[in-house]
Write a structure and sequence with these properties.
This protein has 8 helices and 5 strands, in the order βββαβαβαααααα. By secondary structure, the chain is of the alpha+beta class. α6 runs parallel beside α8 and α7 runs antiparallel to α8.
Length: 290
Amino acid sequence: MAVKIRMMRIGRRHKPFFRINVIDSRTPRDGKIIEKLGHYDPLVKDPDKQLVLNSERAQFWLEKGAVPSDTVSKFLLRLGIKHKYAEEKEARRARARAIARKKGKFFTKAERITAEKKAEAEKTKAEAEAKAKAEAKKAEEQVKEKAEQEQEKEEKAKAEEAPKQAEPELKEEKSEEKPTETSEEKPAEEPPEKKEEAVKAKPETKDVEETAEKKEEKPAKESTEKGEQPKAKTVEEEQETKETKAAEEKTDAKEEKPAEESEKGQEADIKAEVKEEAQEETTSEEKKKE
């Protein structure tokens, strides 16, 4: 007969209470028992009072060959009662665990839960690292974009400032060009030699005028000495006086003009003076003839 040490449930619903009995393995759960060894009350708060067991009688029945159930085996080990069935069971479980690991399977539910938690933790960690890398990359791209935008703004500002800076330079260049242009437009100053010639020419013109006046005065004096009355000025003499005055005015105006115009004026004056001298000579000759 196979004898077992197992638990029998007693109590109502939601209030379990178990008895630990020695019973024949062929009898049902609530069948006839051989001996009562103790009881187990899970509702008691004190864990020391939950289990009540006669350790001497349990040891006796173990020696006789009684086989405890898994739960009763745990209770016996908790009380310090060692037996061969617990060691055999542990060896069997170790072999089964090794086989499951070779096949890549989980041996217990706890192992499966811990493995799932570990995988989830690794997954979250990898996701966090990938997210951090993506954020870092995004931040670098934003920094690059900002740097490029700042460079573009600086280039635009430089391009806008360039014409502004060029404006005063252009104004300065124009201001520099204006006096040069005016200086180019103005006639070049006469060299000292030409100035000396013009100065020399002035007294010559004055001498010519003085000689003409003297010549006019001489016939008048001669006529007065002879007792003749001075004759009225002829139309030709009036024209000559007007021409002389106009020549004098021209010479004065031409002296103020630039060197080129003064040279031309001097030539014209000389020609006019030559003409005047020729006319005066003719007039004087005519008067003598008269």
